[in-house]
Amino acid sequence: MSLIVQKYGGTSVGTIERIEAVADKVKGFRDAGHDIVVVVSAMSGETNRLIALAKDITDTPSNREMDVLVSTGEQVTIALLAIALQKRGCDARSYTGAQVKILTDDAYSKARIQDIDNHRMRADLDAGRVVVVAGFQGVDPEGNITTLGRGGSDTTAVALAAALKADECQIYTDVDGVYTTDPRVEPHARRLDKITFEEMLEMASQGSKVLQIRSVEFAGKYKVPLRVLSSFQDGEGTLITLEEDDDMEKPVVSGIAFNRDEAKVTILNIPDHPGIAYRILGPISEANIEVDVIVQNFSEDGSTSLSFTVHRNDMKKAADILAKVAQELGAKSTVTDDRIAKLAIVGVGMRSHAGVAAKMFKALADENINIQMISTSEIKITVVIEEKYLELAVRTLHAAFELEESPRVE
Amino acid sequence: MSLIVQKYGGTSVGTIERIEAVADKVKGFRDAGHDIVVVVSAMSGETNRLIALAKDITDTPSNREMDVLVSTGEQVTIALLAIALQKRGCDARSYTGAQVKILTDDAYSKARIQDIDNHRMRADLDAGRVVVVAGFQGVDPEGNITTLGRGGSDTTAVALAAALKADECQIYTDVDGVYTTDPRVEPHARRLDKITFEEMLEMASQGSKVLQIRSVEFAGKYKVPLRVLSSFQDGEGTLITLEEDDDMEKPVVSGIAFNRDEAKVTILNIPDHPGIAYRILGPISEANIEVDVIVQNFSEDGSTSLSFTVHRNDMKKAADILAKVAQELGAKSTVTDDRIAKLAIVGVGMRSHAGVAAKMFKALADENINIQMISTSEIKITVVIEEKYLELAVRTLHAAFELEESPRVE
């Protein structure tokens, strides 16, 4: 018998029928002897409906009141799921974030969890009850309702699992696990049985949308075994663990992540002296624009150029800021490009394998795909390429690193 | 400058436009220098929508979870009203019942208020904020969400007014005050400028639906001046006060209340000896059937008969119980009649005026309306008549006691 925290997202509880299906699933785990804490999101569409009501009044509602408003979405789901469990003879009790209580800071709409009181949950579990908790929400030290921001229900589940020292935290979603890459781009993509937290974080930060980054960080920090699996079909899903396999057969690369959300901004012919990067990127950062990949060219004649990627929505704003900076620096010009894509191969195996980058670059070169920017970390190699080559590049690398071949030995 | 607690019901906040109209009204009071606490219900239809979701799962959801579920209705409204007030430059803050906190017992779905903490509200009022509170809900000593039952928002408003020692509690509704009788039956019905708590209670208990009985009791107990007025049109409404007018011109009868909700049950030819009423009504009460008017006939030959009224929905259940009792007592038979109506004239002036009953009975007799049952209290005379005569009886008495004539002098 083990203690499992399960999280079901908005799609999984989107209708009464689906809530009943979740209740069946939970009852199955209870009947198998497990203690269960369930975290649920708002029924799909509900959060947007609530936001639309507020937007009918004003485009700039206060964050405090928005949190009071949208937190009702999960509150509806916890009550309905508890009712569905009770109907099945499964004793259950629902709690809002404030009731648990999940203590957060007072940063409305993007609060961070500071502490979780596990006493009430513990008492209910000891009494044989299923505990149903509203995801995504908490309460600040003053008793105000807060929310963790979109996707925060994953974080709630992981935080509860950490607070209860649960044996596993299961995130039920509409996919059946983490794949080597997006199956819509590469039909031969393969579900991974296991992936490390580090790899998962790199995959997520590169655009793999299966889990919220914060929840993975949290799980890694508190060593909570995390499993991603499907609400709608049976299966083992993907386990996200601390341990690396030391199996010899372990592939070097675990997965390929990519996104089309970014744009490239370049400032040409800037004087090559200390502090120049800061003079350029400082104003960008002050404007709250997040910068991702940054590349500075080799200086040839005392002048250089600097390229970086930002979210496409921020491209114009960044270019406007750079135009001013360029004038101050006597730089030649700035160039923007939103027809790029970012692509990364990820794998803890890279640490102990040489030649991974060379293999990646050769595979792309063989298909005449030009690499515009390169950025590397210990377990990841990121390249920026022209957007139109993205699908070809993903399939090429998926094949080159034999991700679809034989199932990973574990 | 005074402190006013205002309550707006579901119809008054039924759409975003109406919530904005309420915000305009509240801002008007703020601009006039008053401190305002607003209590709101769920948007009309919302509570029923939530109940329907639960009923899709089971017909017997637990009361605890139903309270978690339906309390979200008011929570949505408080956030939206606070947002609408802020948009008007009116600083505002919303609170759920638990946040205030409104402490209740743990009788889910029909909890009773035990205590109200006024500190947070006081601090906000002192800071110049409008305080927006969710009606109908509270929290038990264990931190579980409770609701006060339907219509409980009126009670919340009165209780907050008592806790804050407010100068007035204003209940905004879809009628513009308390009338001498239902204007749909008697077009000449007149709005009362004032009515005493006692009269209001008797009117409410006889079917006048303007205010919840509990809220009137509460207001009377804590001496909270209560005013009923329209959300949709300007006017002074009706003030419900402790003081009786000692004006000589004061009419004897203030209003006529009636309802069609009851049925009459009679048990014939029962032995006339002590304890017989208990042997009949005891089993009825044990079955949780509420009995209203009770009349026992004059005994002629050592046997008597007993009639009483119950809610029409309980008639069959009551008759079944009586059938058994009748057998035990050797009574002749039981008779039921659901074609009755109950009608009452109410007025504190009756205390000092003789002949009111006689005048009432004569007026009805003049129209050939037979009186089946009579029950009197200090400020009320109730009769049960055949249902088909109800409208005629109301209009006859309204005219007989000159309720439509000249406006009441105050």
Short description:
Two copies of one chain form a homodimer. With 410 residues, chain A is of the alpha/beta class. In chain A, 35% of the residues lie in helices and 26% in strands.
Number of strand elements of chain A: 20
Tell me, what is the CATH class of the largest domain in chain A?
A: Alpha Beta
- Oligomer designation: homodimer
For the record, give the distance between the C-alpha atoms at the N and C termini of chain A, rounded to a whole number. 25 Å
Structural class of chain A: alpha/beta
Largest interface: A-B, 37 and 37 residues
Placed side by side, the strands forming the largest sheet of chain A appear as 3-6-2-1-9-11-12-10
Major sheet characteristics of chain A: 8 strands, mixed
Approximately how much helix is present in the residues of chain A?
25-40%
Mean pLDDT of chain A: 90
Q: Determine Rg of chain A (CA atoms, Å).
A: 24 Å
CATH homology-level superfamily of the largest domain in chain A: Acetylglutamate kinase-like
How many domains, in number, for the residues of chain A? Answer: 3
* Strand composition percent of chain A: 25-35%
- Name the poorly predicted regions of chain A: none
Q: Overall 3D geometry of chain A?
A: globular
**In CATH terms, what is the architecture of the largest domain in chain A?**
3-Layer(aba) Sandwich
SS field, number of helical segments of chain A: 12
Q: How would you sum up this structure, described in words?
A:
The structure is a homodimer of 410-residue chains. Chain A is an alpha/beta fold and 410 residues long. Chain A has three domains: 3-174, 3-Layer(aba) Sandwich (Carbamate kinase); 255-259 and 340-400, VC0802-like, CATH 3.30.2130.10; 264-337, 2-Layer Sandwich (VC0802-like), CATH 3.30.2130.10. Chain A has helices spanning 16-31, 46-57, 63-87, 97-100, 119-126, 152-163, 197-205, 213-221, 276-286, 315-329, 356-366, 390-400, and strands at residues 3-8, 35-40, 92-95, 102-104, 113-116, 130-134, 137-139, 145-147, 168-173, 194-196, 226-230, 238-241, 255-259, 262-271, 291-296, 303-311, 333-337, 340-346, 371-377, 380-386. In chain A, strand 7 and strand 8 form a beta hairpin. In chain A, helix 2 packs antiparallel against helix 3, helix 7 runs antiparallel to helix 8 (213-221) and helix 9 (276-286) packs antiparallel against helix 10 (315-329). The first copy, chain A, is globular. The model of chain A has no long low-confidence stretch (mean pLDDT 90). Chain A binds chain B through residues 16, 19-20, 50, 53-54, 56-58, 61-62, 64-66, 68-69, 71-72, 75-76, 78-80, 82-84, 86-87, 93-94, 96, 98-99, 120, 143-145, and chain B through 16, 19-20, 50, 53-54, 56-58, 61-62, 64-66, 68-69, 71-72, 75-76, 78-80, 82-84, 86-87, 93-94, 96, 98-99, 120, 143-145.
